[in-house]
Structures are given as C-alpha cells and as structure tokens.
Amino acid sequence: MTSLASQRREPLPDDAPHVLIVDDDQKIRDLLARYLYSQGFRVTAAADAETAQASLRGLDFDIVLLDVMMPGISGLELAREIKAQRDIPICMLTARAEPEQRIEGLEVGVDDYISKPFEPRELLLRLRNILRRGQAAQTTPANQSDELRMGTLVFHIARGELKRNNETIKLTERERDLLRQFAQKPGVPIQRHELSTEDATGSDRAIDVQINRLRRKIETDPSNPVYLQTVRGKGYILYAD
C-alpha cells in the first residue's frame, strides 16, 4: 500500500459519510483513518471485531471497511453478523491470495472488496462508488414506473425496497443496484460486464455469485428461475409482469 499521509482538513460537517475501519494492524488502521478523514469522511477505527461491535451498537455508520484476517472473530464472521442485523454497506480488505474468501464474502453480502496492497485513490473510488450506489435512483424519471412487479414481489425502484405481500425482503446495496439495473431494461439481456461495479473490476464468477444470492430472494425455486434467467453467451435477463 502506498503512503496514505495527507494534511488534515477543517472539522467535517455532521452529514459527512461515517466509515468504520476494522483492522488489527495499527499502522494500516491509523493511515487509513488519516487518509479518509482528509478526503471528507468521519472516521471511527476498531482493532478487532469486539470493539467494532461495540461501536456499531452506539453509533450510526454509512459504510464499514473490514479486514478479512483478524484474530478471534474473523472479518467474514463479523460481516455475516452485520448483514444479518442491519443494512450497512461493507468493503472488505483481502490479500491477493484469498480468492475463495472474496467469493465467500460476496455470498455473505459484502458489497465490494479491495486487495492489499492497494492504491489509496482506488480505495477512495470504491468507497464512494458503494455510497453512490446506495443513494442512486432516489428520483425516478417521469416516464418510468417506480415499481417492478414479479408475481407477488414488488420492487420499489426509488426506495430500493423489495416486498412480497407487503413483507419487506432485506437486500444488500449490491442487490439493490442489480435490481435497479435490470429495472432499466426489463426483458432485455444484460451482459455480465455491464453488471460489474463502476470500476469494472468484478469477475464473471463474482457476478454469478451475486446473481445467485439475488435469485434466492426473488425466485420460488432458485435452481429453476422464472424471473431472473441466464442467457447463454450474453449474461442475464429479468422478466417482469
């Protein structure tokens, strides 16, 4: 990781995005905290999962930056716990030799990952992209319906809310983003590379994992999908009612 040292800014406004950094390496933790603060983030740092859990109980966060390998409760275990309890985007820090853990993280619901060593600007781009996806589609064009219907399911595009018979189905930020992309082109095949994150680093396998997770939430039989289908050689297509 290249140097993260930067000049500190003036005090940040209360509505600046709040990031929770969880990493057992104090040097990395401190460097990340200084850099992200200099880029307009309010920052809270934790050396382990237990400290992070205490912070999550007492503070509101816009995003979590979480290391995979930590003593005690691992980053993946903590990510699974966070996603089960609340809807906070998570970006994981991984070593390049941990491809299976990246896939497991996506299965847990992690929104993105970045490999160590990394460039600070790439990290900043990923965090901002995740936050921007969460804020996307707050307004809907006048000529576009705000609802996507699939049988008993209704996806409210602007709110990013999926319901079945008025019961809310919990979505990750990445799943919301995928549904919004499909909602823009219902009945039209979308290639895998179009479904990648904005920095175009998502692998085909990562996209497949995310699609399979989404199918488990919208399909009665995910192995035999009715709405979200694979188009061989092209990608995926979503059929709405």
Number of helices: 7
**What is the helix/strand order?**
EHEHEHEHEHEEEEHHEE
CATH topology descriptor of the largest domain: Rossmann fold
Would you tell me the structural class of the helices and strands? alpha/beta
Radius of gyration: 18 Å
DSSP summary, beta strand count: 11
Sheet having the most strands: 5 strands, parallel
How many separate domains make up the residues?
2
Describe the structure.
With 241 residues, the protein is an alpha/beta fold. It folds into two domains: 18-135, Rossmann fold (3-Layer(aba) Sandwich); 147-238, Winged helix-like DNA-binding domain superfamily/Winged helix DNA-binding domain (Arc Repressor Mutant, subunit A, Orthogonal Bundle). The chain contains seven helices and eleven strands. The strands form three sheets. Strands 2-1-3-4-5 form a five-stranded parallel β-sheet, with helices on both faces. A hairpin with a 2-residue loop joins β8 and β9 (167-169). α3 packs parallel to α4. The chain is globular and about 50 Å long. It starts with 17 loop residues before the first strand and ends with a strand. Mean pLDDT is 83; it is low at 1-8, 137-143 and 198-202.
Offer a quick outline of the entry.
The protein has 241 residues and is α/β, with parallel strands linked by helices. It has 7 helices and 11 strands.
Which features characterize this protein?
241 residues; alpha/beta; Rossmann fold; Arc Repressor Mutant, subunit A; 2 domains; five-stranded parallel β-sheet; four-stranded antiparallel β-sheet; globular
Describe the protein's topology.
Layout: E1 18-22, H1 26-38, E2 42-46, H2 49-58, E3 63-67, H3 75-85, E4 90-95, H4 99-108, E5 112-116, H5 120-135, E6 147-150, E7 153-156, E8 161-164, E9 167-169, H6 173-184, H7 204-218, E10 228-231, E11 235-238
Helix pairs in contact: 3-4
